[in-house]
Amino acid sequence: MDYVEISFTCSEEMAEILMAELSEIGFDSFVESDNGLLCYIQSDLYDKDQLDVQISRYGNIEPLKYKILNIPKKNWNEEWEKSYKPIVIGDKAIVRADFHEVEKTYDYEIIITPKMSFGTGHHQTTSMMVRMQMGLNHKGKLVYDIGCGTGILSIMAGLRDAKKIIGCDIDEWSVVNTRENIQNNNMNEKISVVHGTVQSLPEEPADILLANINKNIILSELESYNSRLKEGGHILFSGFYERDTSDILDAAKKFGLNLEKEASEQNWKCLQLVKKGK
């Protein structure tokens, strides 16, 4: 599939706002540039009028200028490599592309081939999920990764000694990308991925469920998540704003899912819930 790149000239503060707002209208990848922010969306989802409405509310805070570039899928690697830099998460994990050189050793090293899929560690939701995983026992566990994107969370689960990980994504390109990244991280024996929603996953309850999606999907699929989670199992949620936390926690309590840990970063939220029964 082809993509549209929107290049904003803006401040760092406004770039954070744009990532939050544009993710609500289908933009799935963001790269901070020297002058502002590069935002990417599938061509068939791009609506210029919708974009203008979304950013118009911030005109009184900072004038926003942007340029539009159509990017064929075959050129994505070239565009991404221009801006993609390694990221260190929690001083213990590094997420990098195979063309990056590493100067020191980290406890966890994740290689992500730059493709048009969400989840490189640069976005706050992804980095918070990875940090939360580092504090959760995965050893010998069955893990489901819903909306796996690049497969970064699945790979982290594998590095944390999970026994078996199954990811799913509704985007075929993400499934292809995840499979490439699984191979690049030597995780073929532990991780598999299917094309589809949570309903495409086995009915066998997992020990850990990972979902870095958005509020509406989490709320609509919460019952399915719960049915695929063992008693005493954990769910890690992110992909939503701090202001949405109470809605998600209220809905989760109805299924006996209770808050155990939480993290916030630049208006984004990450939750760790445990299933203790109603």
Automatic annotation (TrEMBL):
Residue stretches spanning the membrane: none
Listed GO CC annotations: cytoplasm; ribosome
Principal place of residence: cytoplasm
Pfam families linked: PrmA (PF06325)
Enzyme class label: transferase
Keywords attached to this entry: Cytoplasm, Methyltransferase, Ribonucleoprotein, Ribosomal protein, S-adenosyl-L-methionine, Transferase
InterPro entries linked: Ribosomal_L11_MeTrfase_PrmA (IPR050078), Ribosomal_PrmA_MeTrfase (IPR004498), SAM-dependent_MTases_sf (IPR029063)
Binding site for S-adenosyl-L-methionine: T126, G147, D169, N212
Subcellular location: Cytoplasm
EC number: 2.1.1.-
Catalyzed reactions per annotation: L-lysyl-[protein] + 3 S-adenosyl-L-methionine = N(6),N(6),N(6)-trimethyl-L-lysyl-[protein] + 3 S-adenosyl-L-homocysteine + 3 H(+)
Function: Methylates ribosomal protein L11.
Family of the protein in this entry: Belongs to the methyltransferase superfamily. PrmA family.
NCBIfam families in UniProt: PRK00517.2-2
Protein name listed in UniProt: Ribosomal protein L11 methyltransferase
Organism, as annotated: Mangrovivirga cuniculi
Gene that this sequence comes from: prmA
